[in-house]
Amino acid sequence: MPGGWRGRGKGWDRQTATDEVLLVAAQGGDSAAFEMLVRRYTQPLYAFATRILGSADDAADVAQHTFIQCYNSLPRLRSDTPLRPWLYRVARNRCLDLLRQRRTANVEHARNDDGDEIDSLATLPDTGPSLDALAERGDLQRLIAGAIGQLPQKYREVVVLRYEGELTFAEIAETLGIPENSAKTLFQRAKTMLRLALREWVDTDV
Amino acid sequence: MNKNYRSKMDAEENDDLDRLMMRLESPAVPSSLVPQILAQTVGQSPATAMARQRARAALWAVYGVSFVLVAVCAVLFGQALHATGTLDYLAFAQAEWGLVQDNPTLFRDAVLGQLPWGNCAALLVTLGGWLVATVAVLRAPGLPRSSDEGGAPPHAMPGAVR
Fold first, then answer.
1. Looking at residue A133, what is its pLDDT?
2. Counting C-beta atoms within 10 Å of the first and last residue's C-beta, which end of chain B has fewer, N or C?
3. Are B23 and A139 in contact (CB under 8 A)?
C-alpha cells in the first residue's frame, strides 16, 4: 500500500496521498480522506458534466450524485479500485440519464449517430480575428467549447475525458466500457472533427 | 485546463490542436457545491445515516414480503382453478377452440361462474402491492440504480468485491 497510511498518525498528509490510500482510509471511516477525494475530483467531474450536458445546474447534480454514489459504495469498493475511471463512469451514467430525460426537449444533446456531424461542424465560422484577439475577448473559450459541444456524444465524451479529465486511453476505455484501441480511434476521429471545426485557428496561430 | 496536459500521461508530442485545447479553461465550480456534497456524505449525522439505512432496509423488507405474497397467492390461485374445475374449461377451450367460438357467451358464463374470485382478487391485490413496493425501492434516495453501474449488476461493477 503506497504510503502505508495505517502506520501514520493523525497528521498524515492527505493532500499528497494517492487515491487508493484515500479510498482505503475513507473505507476505514476517515471522513477527512473522503473529503479530500471530494475536493480533488469535484472540479474535473463538474467540468466533464458541464461539457457533456451544457448546463451548470445539471453538472452540479451529476457531481453530487457521483459522490453520494461513491460514499454509499465505499463498503463494496475494492481497495485497489482505480477510482478516477470509476468516478467518471458513474458521472457519465448520470449524464446519460439526464440526457435521456431531456431528449424530447433537446434532441441535439442526445444525438448519438455520426451522420452529418462533420457537415454541422463545418458550419462554424472559418474566418475571423486572430487567436489572440479571440482570447482577449473571451470568444476563444466559447469557440472551443462550442466545437466540443457540437461533437456527437460519444466523441464528445472521449475528447472531454482526454483533454479536460486528462485520462489515459486505458482509463477512458475503462470509463466508457470499450477497448482501449476503440478509445484511441474515437479520439482520433474526434480530433479530425475538431480540427475541421477549428481549422482557421489550428493551422495558423497555434 | 491543465497546461501540463499529457506531460503526465502518454509520452506523445502535442500537436496544434492539442495546444489549442490547452487554452480551454475549465468551468468554475460553484462555491456551494463542495459543501453541499460534503453535507450529503460525510456531513450526515450518524442518526440521519442510520435512519436512512433503516428506511432502505424496511423498503427492501416490504418488497420481499410482497414478492412472497404474490408467489403464495399465485400458487393458491392455480390450485383454486384446478379445484373449481375452471382449469378444465380452459383446457377444453384450448382443445376445442372452434366450439368456444361458436358459443362464446356460454363459455364465458361457465368460466366466470366457476372462477375462484377470492383467490383472483387476492392475487391482483398482492400484485399491485408488489408493484408499488418495487417502484418505492427503485426510487428510494441513495440507492444505486442500474444505470449508475452501466446496467451491470453490482458484482460486475469495476472494483466491486467479488
1. 61
2. C
3. no
CA separation for the pair A92, A187 (Å, rounded): 17
pLDDT in tens, A38-73: 999 999 999 999 999 988 999 999 999 999 999 888
Q: Per the confidence metrics, is the pTM higher than 0.95?
A: no
Look at residues A44, A46, A43 and name the one whose alpha carbon lies nearest to residue A62.
A46
Rounded Cα gap, residues B72 and A3, in angstroms: 56
Nearest to B20 among A68, A77, A198 (CB): A198
The complex's ipTM works out to: 0.73
Q: Retrieve residue B91's grid coordinates.
A: 383446457
Nearest to A167 by CA among A193, A186, A151: A186
Give me B122's grid cell.
387476492
pLDDT class for A115, splitting at 50, 70, 90? very low
- Minimal C-alpha gap between A86 and chain B (Å): 7
Q: What's the CA gap between B16 and A206, in Å, rounded?
A: 6
A63/A173 Cα distance (integer angstroms): 21
Mean pLDDT of A23-46: 90
Q: Which A positions 106-145 lie with beta carbon below 8 A of chain B? A: 131, 135, 140-141, 144-145
A206/B9 CB distance under 8 A: no
